[in-house]
């Protein structure tokens, strides 16, 4: 059996956070969360001219703190 496709859903909270950080009104953030394998979870960030895939495994964050995950996502893309 092959892997099933993974569907990312719009994340209002992550979108609002990144828009606030970047000043971009075009930006949208989608997330896929795998409850069994956190490292398989990921964000998709769509800006006016590109689509960026960031796996949770690429982000340094406190697993108990969603805000720290969003801050890590921002750092992974913009720093």
3D architecture notes:
The protein is of the alpha+beta class. It has one domain (9-78). 30% of the residues lie in helices and 22% in strands. It has two helices and four strands, in the order βαβββα. It has helices at 12-22, 66-78, and strands spanning 9-10, 28-32, 42-46, 51-55. A four-stranded antiparallel sheet has the order 1-2-3-4, covered by helices on one side. The radius of gyration is 12 Å and the shape is globular. It starts with 8 loop residues before the first strand and ends with a helix. The relative contact order is 0.19. The mean pLDDT is 93.
Compact summary:
The chain is of the alpha+beta class. The protein has one domain (9-78).
Task: List the keywords.
79 residues, alpha+beta, four-stranded antiparallel beta sheet, 2 helices, 4 strands, globular
């Amino acid at each position: 059996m092959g892997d099933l496709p993974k569907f990312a859903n719009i994340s209002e909270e992550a979108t609002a956070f990144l828009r606030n950080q970047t000043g971009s009104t075009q930006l949208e953030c989608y997330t896929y969360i795998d409850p069994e394998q956190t490292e398989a979870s990921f964000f998709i960030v769509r800006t006016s001219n590109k689509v960026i895939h960031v796996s949770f495994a690429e982000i340094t964050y406190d697993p108990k703190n969603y805000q720290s995950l969003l801050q890590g996502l921002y750092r992974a893309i913009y720093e």
